[in-house]
Amino acid sequence: MKKTAQVIWFCLLGCLSFATAAQERVYTVGVANFQANLSMAAQLNPILKWVGQRAGVELVMKSGYNFDDMQRHLARGEYDFYIGFPSLQSMIRQSLSYKVIAALEGQAKSAIIVQYHSPYQKLADLNGHEVAMGRRGIFMANVVPMSLLLDEGVRVKPLAVGNQESLVTEFKLGKYQAVAVNLGAFKRIMGKNNHPYRVLWESPPLMNYPLAVRADVVPDDVVKRVQQAFIDMAQDAEGQAILERSNQRPGIQWKGWKVASEQDYQFAIESYQRLSAVKTMEP
Hints:
By secondary structure, the protein is of the alpha/beta class. The chain has helices at 2-23, 37-55, 67-75, 90-95, 139-152, 164-172, 183-190, 220-233, 237-246, 266-275; strands at 26-31, 58-62, 81-83, 98-104, 107-108, 110-115, 130-134, 157-161, 178-182, 197-202, 206-207, 210-214, 257-259. It has two domains: 2-106 and 208-275, 3-Layer(aba) Sandwich (D-Maltodextrin-Binding Protein, domain 2), CATH 3.40.190; 108-206, D-Maltodextrin-Binding Protein, domain 2. Strands 2-1-3-12-4-13 form a six-stranded mixed beta sheet. A three-stranded antiparallel beta sheet has the order 9-6-10.
């Protein structure tokens, strides 16, 4: 009888361990290098912890040491989920099965900013000059402004900067006369230091950052639970409080999520396709 009880006990322990492992299955969440990784982690980790707990999984933020490194991880399919436009690039969509399941609430704008006393008064004045911007593949701070400049026939000398936080900081120090940025993030990082600048051009409002999943790797039930948790977060008192605390930091504003699909991002898909063959704009 005693031996039978021990067998039952070990079976129960095994079942409990299996259930716990299933409950705590770890999924990676890649994220574009919008800002320094420590700043991004401070904003995003509390959000991922809440979403993971609600979805019954563990979500772990993973990025690269810079944008190019992140792109390499993305191209190898190393992220189970991904936040940002790079998952919509032609080469990624052709080789991997990333599928958009949600969009960050709100809208975003791309912009070209110049120092207040710079000689640049219109886009044509930038022809042949340096413009600091995000690295190739960053949508708001590279793809959108580069598409505009192509349309306008303005050929600039693009200077790739690691992330937007660095770009804005160096702009404030006077290192760059012209920068291409995500306008909302630019203003938040600039803060209230009264540094004078001019908006030379800004895009119309665009759909905000997508949340994608690698559909061939993540089980459908997990996708549904994670998607629903992201969408529910802004409607939950605890979730809303976490979002508000994250948004006290400069950078991306996490306002909650809504259901979305690739159809909502055709403008981005087509922009990436158009620029995929364009290697440089230098004169």
